[in-house]
Write a structure and sequence with these properties.
single chain, 2 strands, disordered C terminus, 71% helix, two-stranded antiparallel ribbon, globular, mainly alpha
Length: 328
């Protein structure tokens, strides 16, 4: 790599680390910086390749440790550097087809791999938490949430508070993990958009509307859901929340089906805006979208809205006009 690219990679990783610590430093709007802390690393990856993203990720860990301590470095590495590095490597994976064109790893395959990574990390975190609490994992999370909400809304009725906390605690790790996956997806899409605007992109922008999931994506979800019905105690809790995380790719698949279905409606923008508003206000709408994604995976309902049976890949996904293969 050129020295200029190395410096840019180090700078990207450093900026990511600083952004991830903004919330702890009390900077106004610091939480927003945390949400987009992975964006600089993804921009480095999608414009300079896999070697650069490794340098950026390591640089971010070093800077996080320098500004904080070893725990800060470990937390940054687990929640920002590792997933950014992993997804970048997945996204830039390519191979040459028999006709000589370049094929790239599809967004659905990358997203499915990310959900498995997140589920594994959640399981690992839950097991660590079980070793430091004298009560069950769910009860421990319930206690933590109760103490936090008691500070925020001290005047709330105890019975209502207990009911709300009980519901939240039962799905808290899964919802947090699913939200984490969604934020990573948003960061990757934004990063690809930015590098395309700068004409620095290594791979072409995939067609998210035509996203498909690999066939294996359903099995981790099925296994986790089945385990949650059979197991009890902490094992049941972990399996239940793993299933929530592993259902996240199907949520995105469901969104692609909905976008595909309304694309020819003249007021599609207004309709989609209203639908997204409903999703923000209702968790049931999110479950409905994930359910649509599961139906699409097994029954292929999106093909009913298609004029072309071969719509899984657009021409830009099959080859890169710049001739890059994403490897260095």
């Amino acid at each position: 790599m050129q020295q200029k690219n190395i410096l840019m990679a180090v700078g990207g990783g450093s900026l990511s680390a600083v952004a991830s610590l903004a919330f702890l430093s009390g900077v106004p709007g610091g939480l927003l910086f945390v949400y987009f802390a992975m964006l600089p690393i993804f921009m480095v990856a999608f414009s300079m390749g896999t070697t650069a993203v490794s340098i950026a990720a390591l640089s971010g860990i070093v800077i996080a440790g320098t500004l904080g301590d070893s725990v800060t470095a470990a937390a940054y590495g687990a929640f920002h550097a590792l997933p950014a590095w992993f997804i970048s490597r997945q996204s830039l994976a390519s191979y040459q087809t028999q006709d000589g064109s370049i094929a790239w790893r599809t967004p659905g395959a990358v997203l499915s791999s990310l959900s498995v990574l997140c589920a594994v990390m959640m399981i690992f975190g839950a097991l660590l938490f079980s070793n430091i609490t004298t009560m069950g994992i769910e009860q421990g999370i319930n206690t933590i949430l109760r103490e936090a909400f008691a500070q925020v809304i001290p005047n709330m009725d105890n019975e209502e508070l207990a009911q709300m906390i009980g519901t939240m605690a039962s799905i808290f790790p899964g919802v947090m993990g699913g939200s984490w996956v969604i934020m990573i997806v948003i960061n990757t899409v934004l990063a690809q958009s930015f590098v395309v605007r700068m004409d620095k992109n290594i791979r072409p922008t995939p067609s998210y509307l035509n996203m498909d999931l690999p066939q294996w994506a359903a099995w981790p979800l099925v296994i986790s859901a089945a385990a949650s019905l059979i197991l009890s105690g902490d094992a049941n809790y972990i399996a239940q929340n793993s299933a929530i995380i592993l259902a996240t790719p199907f949520f995105f698949l469901g969104l692609s089906v909905i976008h595909w279905a309304v694309r020819r409606i003249s007021f599609s923008v207004a309709l989609l805006s209203f639908f997204y508003l409903i999703m923000i206000m209702s968790g049931w709408a999110i479950l409905l979208v994930a359910g649509i994604g599961m139906i699409e995976q097994w029954a292929g309902i999106r093909s009913r809205f298609s004029d072309n049976s071969n719509t899984n890949l657009t021409p830009t996904e099959k080859s890169d006009p710049k001739g890059h293969d994403g490897q260095e």
